[in-house]
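Query structure, 812 tokens:
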């Protein structure tokens, strides 16, 4: 039994769920403090209407919701009425097909219904307004307060205590760790672990310990109608409900019954961020700070649209309403994790009732076992770039998150605002070449270049296919990307690799540190480059890295993003090793293609022949008079180099390479071409193809685990692991025009057995390629089918990699 002493700040649905999950695991010395009375504390949970629609584009969030439903059902705190999402536009109807696909991929039962079937389930609907619906029988209404009290009672029986009217005003520290909290009454509560489950107060509490918790409290309208005739079923009162919960996302609306009245939630109004200082200064809101006065004028459209959809409401009116406050984040996901600079201080915030028990379970596992069983990288506190942590950025993006909460979001849709935050030194030239920029990690990244449009015609005349795309897959896309990919394989192209996150790890202990932290052997000669993995204690893949040894005690690391810096920093020894993010101060051009050497060799001060500069090697030299680090690596699977220099030299380097490349008809190429080439070559993308839920062998990166190393983080778990039940496979589509975009369900033998992780069109073989997690017994050559919107595409499991299995292209 654990003797950990835990204080949880907040007795809402998250705090109480966490107390239950921790005590269930034997961690029973728990004090839950709340500033309000128990258990109607005045937080968001106190008035949550409790609709739980489980299906989400995120596998993690869906898993959290699925667990929450299962648990609340077991606590008699869930009314499993089913959920119905209806479409009143063609775009939504198509999107509900996509949603059905997510449900199948993540294991949530659900069916598409025609208008009459929708009306049979929900008789108040005007079937003429509806094109169809998606029905999920296991969705329903969480009785949030019942779930709170049931879990609090259970936790109390196991030893936890819950105290109301105890506002935490200070987090105490001792010896660089959290040691407890002080409340407004002056009482101190000692703790080894403090978890802030303070809901929309989370950012304020974080600020007390120097932590940015990127959430914005926003008001959202919820109203109840007067009695609705057809719902008068003989004396029904209170919150009883019999109809499925209903979403009308085309108008940003959702509905539930409250006895013989209808509750209406609305996301179509202007974003209403709440200023916490004003909120708390208002004594009227002290009793229920999360309920602000109803602004009727913001609800006019909501009511008119509701009457239109549910004509029975025409005899009714809005009886009461409020603007309820809860948290929004820049990317819509929750915020979970431990403060890196104050060990023992954790946060679990911006969590809907829908995901609450799932989040709490993952938090309990994380706190007690070191890692959650579900991959939580989408929710990790440290997922944000520094550039995304300004109050202005957080406010703008979270407000946009509110506006888009029910919008149809394309998987490749990129943020429109704020933009132009981080640009590479090549940006002016990219503009001149007609780059179409997508945003990622606050960087402007060229997706394709209009300057290459003529290549489409040229290649088409040579017989290269450019399949038409349907409206959905044709968005955020241009056939120019096919030409760019093909040109890379046949000639040479320049790729802006600047946004690739780069660190310098240095110091006398640097090599030993990286040996312990990663799976492959990096203790090689200076000038070696190694592909390696970082694992957690359970053997799950935290990231994949390219590690270049530039000097005895100096390594340059190509990483995936801010989570890597967090992971590396947490594992640094107290002295002897430093890590520095050099991404912004440097830049990188990938020069790849069969003519890459012809282009670069005349400019290079060093001999870059295959004999002198082999594959997976690095040198420091000059291109013209520009000092560079060159690495012979290629994520696109072609001859060539990543050429790094400091930012002030970037534009000159670009001009030198681009101008010299003109005799070889070198082009600048974008991210879509890059992605399709890496798929052909079998290279995984961390975060979509593989995450902390996957072991290296199953993900097809077992080659990056050195069998000779005695010890590295995660090795014990790998040694003890069974053969994987599911593996990442490459599938190639039979129909040359088939395109999928990711997360689609994959069937074998008529059953859904897996899901797509990432996909792209291969210009080399003239077919789309996708990666999918599939049962290990689905073998190369087996037929599968992939459901994309309303289509089913046949595909075949393919040996990997699809292109250049013998590495001839890369090693020439
Ligand atoms: C109108 C409305 C409708 C919604 N509808 C749905 C829905 O249908 N489905 C859904 O899933 N979600 C819905 N939500 C969102 C959901 O209600 C919240 O996300 C959820 O309740 C948050 O739970 P929590 O435990 O994190 O926060 P809270 O319930 O706010 O709990 C946080 C607690 O922390 C306490 N606290 C704060 N600071 C301190 C301090 N310094 N010291 C001590 N205690 C402190 C507060 O008093 C509070 O009790 C809705 C929200 C609103 C406003």
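Result returned for the query:
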């Amino acid at each position: 039994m654990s003797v950990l002493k835990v204080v949880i700040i907040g007795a809402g649905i998250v705090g109480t769920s966490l107390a239950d999950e921790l005590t269930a695991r034997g961690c029973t010395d728990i004090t839950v403090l709340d500033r309000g009375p128990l258990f109607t504390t005045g937080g968001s949970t106190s008035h949550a209407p409790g609709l739980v629609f489980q299906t989400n584009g995120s596998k993690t969030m869906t898993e959290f919701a699925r667990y929450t439903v299962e648990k609340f059902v077991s606590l008699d705190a869930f009314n499993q009425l089913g959920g119905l999402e209806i479409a009143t536009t063609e775009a939504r109807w198509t999107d509900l097909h996509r949603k059905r696909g997510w449900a199948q991929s993540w294991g949530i039962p659900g069916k598409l219904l025609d208008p009459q079937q929708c009306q049979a389930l929900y008789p108040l609907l005007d079937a003429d307004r509806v094109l169809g619906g998606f029905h999920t029988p296991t969705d329903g209404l969480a009785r949030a307060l019942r779930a709170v009290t049931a879990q609090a009672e259970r936790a109390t029986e196991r030893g936890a205590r819950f105290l109301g009217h105890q506002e935490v005003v200070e987090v105490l520290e001792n010896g660089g760790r959290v040691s407890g909290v002080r409340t407004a009454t002056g009482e101190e509560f000692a703790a080894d672990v403090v978890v802030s489950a303070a809901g929309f107060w989370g950012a304020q509490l974080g600020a007390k310990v120097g932590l940015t918790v990127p959430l914005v409290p926003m008001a959202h309208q919820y109203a109840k109608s007067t009695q609705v005739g057809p719902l008068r079923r003989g004396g029904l009162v209170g919150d009883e409900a019999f109809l499925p919960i209903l979403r009308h996302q085309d108008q940003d609306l959702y509905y539930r019954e409250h006895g013989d009245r209808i509750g209406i939630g609305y996301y179509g109004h202007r974003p209403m961020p709440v200023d916490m200082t004003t909120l708390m200064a208002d004594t009227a809101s002290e009793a229920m700070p999360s309920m602000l006065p109803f602004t009727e004028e913001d609800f006019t459209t909501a009511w008119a649209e509701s009457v239109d959809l549910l004509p029975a409401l025409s005899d009714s009116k809005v009886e009461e309403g409020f603007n309820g406050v809860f948290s929004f984040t820049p990317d819509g996901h929750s915020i979970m994790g431990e403060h890196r600079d104050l060990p023992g201080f954790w946060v679990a915030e911006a969590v809907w009732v829908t995901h609450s028990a799932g989040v709490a379970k993952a938090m309990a596992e994380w706190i007690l076992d070191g890692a959650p069983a579900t991959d939580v990288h989408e929710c990790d506190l440290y997922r944000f770039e520094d550039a995304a942590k300004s109050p202005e950025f957080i406010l703008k993006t979270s407000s946009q998150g509110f506006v888009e909460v029910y919008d149809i979001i394309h998987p490749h849709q990129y943020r429109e605002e704020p933009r132009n935050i981080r640009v590479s030194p090549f940006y002016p030239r990219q503009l001149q070449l007609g780059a179409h920029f997508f945003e990622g990690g606050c960087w402007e990244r060229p997706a394709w270049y209009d300057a290459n449009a003529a290549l489409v015609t040229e290649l088409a005349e040579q017989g290269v296919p450019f399949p038409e795309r349907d409206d959905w897959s044709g968005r955020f896309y241009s056939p120019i990307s096919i030409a760019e990919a093909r040109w890379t394989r046949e000639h040479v192209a320049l790729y802006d690799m600047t946004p690739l996150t780069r660190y310098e790890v240095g110091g006398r202990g640097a090599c030993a540190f990286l040996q312990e932290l990663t799976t492959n052997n990096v203790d090689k000669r200076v000038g070696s480059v190694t592909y390696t993995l970082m694992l957690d204690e359970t053997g799950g893949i935290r990231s994949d890295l390219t590690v270049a040894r530039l000097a005895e005690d100096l390594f340059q690391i190509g990483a995936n993003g801010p989570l890597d810096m967090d992971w590396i920093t947490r594992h640094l020894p107290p002295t002897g090793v430093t890590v520095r993010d050099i991404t912004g101060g440097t830049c990188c051009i990938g020069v790849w293609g069969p003519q890459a050497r012809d282009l670069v060799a005349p400019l290079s001060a060093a001999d870059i022949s295959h004999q002198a500069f082999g594959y997976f090697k690095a040198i420091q030299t000059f291109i013209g008079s520009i000092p560079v680090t060159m690495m012979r690596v290629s994520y696109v699977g072609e001859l060539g180099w990543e050429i790094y220099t400091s930012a002030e030299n970037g534009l000159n380097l670009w001009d030198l390479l681009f101008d010299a490349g003109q005799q070889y008809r070198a082009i600048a190429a974008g991210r879509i071409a890059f992605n399709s080439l890496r798929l052909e070559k079998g290279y995984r993308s961390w975060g979509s193809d593989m995450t902390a839920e996957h072991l290296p062998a199953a993900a097809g990166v077992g080659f990056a685990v050195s069998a000779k190393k005695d010890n590295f983080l995660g090795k014990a778990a790998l040694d003890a692991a069974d053969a994987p039940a599911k593996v990442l496979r490459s599938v190639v589509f039979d129909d040359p025009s088939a395109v999928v975009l990711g997360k689609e369900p994959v069937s074998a033998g008529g059953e859904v057995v897996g899901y797509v992780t990432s996909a792209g069109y291969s210009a080399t073989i003239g077919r789309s390629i996708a990666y999918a997690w599939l049962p290990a017994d689905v073998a190369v050559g087996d037929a599968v089918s992939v459901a994309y919107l309303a289509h089913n595409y046949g595909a075949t499991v393919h040996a990997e990699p699809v292109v250049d299995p013998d590495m001839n292209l890369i090693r020439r």
